């Protein structure tokens, strides 16, 4: 991820209204910039459908590391973070809509030769050294204090974690979004033989989240627009349209 924002201003609509400041972090293929089709990634393209129905003057996008985005949203320097999971601490700091943008599953990547075939509880994970993203969401099961966790930070955490699994430096890598992990594992191809196991937990709901300082002026419009767009095409269908290969 970049340490400086990449700012894109798009003419979402010319209707009277405010310009919405949206932040996002690298989470391919949901969000990405270099060589992305569509530009900015799938979730940016999907949000453009929503933004057109929100009566905005425009939308500006800032691509930044997640910790910086969270601080900026709390200070009101951004109006919205495009993709964010929910926990009690975040729910107290930010404004969450009632409806999620999409739902996904928490997953664990292990070597294809690992005898673990399914995860039923934390007991199945106690013997594993598990890599996790330092700044990312952790499901309730992954907060079990008995687990052996190794935090990873910096750029390309997903790629780093999968390669550490392949090299035996960790036994597994956890990520809260199966869309992203399966996409990255597929991109590595034959370089890394990975097996992806679904965690035995409820699907993770991912939201577009607003600042408590200034988000109230946008949240009702966003919720109405989101319902309309999802009724026409849910995010999962939109996602699949760009990944049919």
Automatic annotation (TrEMBL):
SMART domains (alphabetical): PBPb
SUPFAM superfamilies per UniProt: Periplasmic binding protein-like II (SSF53850)
Domain Solute-binding protein family 3/N-terminal residues, every copy: 19-241
Pfam families named among the record's database cross-references: SBP_bac_3
InterPro entries xref list: Solute-binding_3/MltF_N
Protein name: Transporter substrate-binding domain-containing protein
